[in-house]
Amino acid sequence: MSSSKPASPAAALPEPFRNYETGNFYDEMLGPDGRVRPHYQHFLKHFGEVGPEDFAAKRNAVDLAFLRQGVTFNVYGDSQGTERIFPFDLVPRIIPASEWEHLEAGLVQRITALNLFLHDIYHEQNIIKDGTIPAHYVMSAKHFRREFMHVKVPRDIYIHICGTDIIRDDKGQYLVLEDNARCPSGVSYVLENRRALKRTFPEIFESGGVRPVENYSQELLKVLQHTAPAGVAEPTVALLTPGPYNSAYFEHTYLARQMGIEIVEGRDLVVRDQHVYMRTTKGLQPVHVIYRRIDDDFLDPTVFRRDSALGVPGLVNAYRAGKVSLANSIGTGVADDKVMYYFVPRIIKYYLDQDPILPNVPTYLASEEADKQYMIENLDKLVVKAANEAGGYGMLMGPHATQAERDEFRTRILADPRNYIGQPMISLSRHPTYCGEAEGFAGRHIDLRPFILYGEKTVIIPGGLTRVALRKGSLVVNSSQGGGSKESWVLYGNH
């Protein structure tokens, strides 16, 4: 993978990209022949008119604006301080209309099937009885909530907000890497990145035919209101946060402000007679819908973790009684389980009688004897992931790991096979990214997290969060592991 080829014909590229190399990867901006892909031509034509000094000034202006507005994320256990600006690269990822239509169709199909699956496993469990998914995989899932068997959830919707991670392989095919069906984060950066780039390149943006994303907060509020308990005409909605030390706290405050709803911590809520109330200066006010950014375990110390100081005693009882609605529902973490990911193509076929529009990455289950044997013998070729870790943690990048690291993972897999999956190392697509004065614009690996809202209708804001691995050669895009973000532009059909 180390060989690279200059992006010729260089004459077609503006000065900043003259030395850009595509490498042996799928490059989002340039074709295999080095020519600019059609949907990037408008941007490059105008971007080429921005001189180095002007570009540096624009970068500094964006960083300063992010710092002033508190567009940050928290890093736990970091010696350099906890709060950081989320690194933002000014070269946008551009998606033509036809590709977006394909992605959108695949994402709608996926969230529809996952909601049907969750309803089934918490009620009739037909998919298990029919033998489509072995029972032990569901029952042993860390986030399967037996306490929620046969509980009716409002409008039968379990996942209201989903962030599905999508990658592109070396042939340019889109693949689903994982579904985030509990408390997906990152959409605030999508909205702030858009504001920043519109301000920075207004002339490029206005003539570029880029679809808007600004309506996300209004669409999210509609979904939350749609899920209100029966008989509540004008529901009060609140966002429940673990508090300012959470890594996504900026996003919690941002979305609450955008939707015009209260942001609360567990101590701000109280349950009386199965109804939830918010403490205010005017006394207790009823709350009907809670957009919770707290995992199940911490929601209610009387049902889940008894040591949780973040939750609300009695909240689960109020939810069971239908007096308050939660988004996302309790128990959606089963759909996050990386072992369950393996079965999503079967889930789509079972409930919708369709083939997946967006395929999975090929996956091996360590709890299947043949797969386990293959994984053990090929750790130097595979990416191994723990079933319930996130943020790039609990993962072995086999080809880049030391022998000692591979040996440690071999021991872990043999001790707890249910907890591990293996996947081939996918050469993620690359995108031009500014990498400092010494390197200039160079290729860096990216993924895409679109945000899907599932309410009265399914809404996906065009694009999503493009995350970029800023370290040279790295395939890990997570912010906690040194990643940054880019704007994602979805073009109208005539551009």
From TrEMBL:
Pfam families: CP_ATPgrasp_2. InterPro entries: ATP-dep_Glu-Cys_Ligase-2, CP_ATPgrasp_2, UCP005522. Residues 92-469 form the Circularly permuted ATP-grasp type domain. This is Circularly permuted ATP-grasp type 2 domain-containing protein. It comes from Lacunisphaera limnophila. The lineage of its organism: Bacteria, Pseudomonadati, Verrucomicrobiota, Opitutia, Opitutales.
